[in-house]
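Repro:
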Amino acid sequence: MRDTTFRLDHYLEIEPGYYDKVYRRGRGIQWFWHHYRLRRVESTLPADTKSLLDLGCGPGTFLGTLSRPVERALGIDLAEPQIAYAREHYSRPGFEFRVADVRDAALEGGFDTAVSIEVIEHLPPDEVHGFLRDAFAVLRPGGHLILTTPNAKSLWPLLEWLVSLVGPVDYRQQHLGLFDRKGLVRAVAAAGFEAVRAETFFVVAPFVAPLSRRLAAGLLGFERRVLPALGAEILLVARRPA
């Protein structure tokens, strides 16, 4: 049984900028995983997104590597060292990084879109609804929430165990609750969102990346068309009612 105590101490032990350095590496399974997850989220941003909030931004990689323009972007995270890294590497006019609690931060509202990339699985189950309601509150009417999280009904639980054994991050300590696609849709709908839809991605494509980045990218597109429910990651998009 998972210990459902929020493990901030384990999160703070992660090297500042660790995941950004993985992203910048440009090769390997872990790089492919992070790179294509962020680009998939970016491709899902609604066309009218002018203000963007990144809930749990870590070292700022998502906002810092956006290829499409937004007028204002705010990234928040619990870890001051990660925010310091984000400010050093990715601050620019209109982009702010701030130390704040994604669960109960008193944030200004009116954002067009909020993204939450690999955050919800780190929360105790009894705090998930409050987190989603906070995300609801900071969006303008008609605004969108986009989030990703591991898929419990996939190979992810096995991958989590293996990566935790050999890697620098023990996800067994950090992940307090995993979702399947239907369960995540229900949780987001219960928080007041509408037009909730979810898909999955990453079946075997990341593991081909060390052999060929081009082949892995092509396989990723094939997986989305042919195996839409078996991916190790869930991508969910929802809207606050207008």
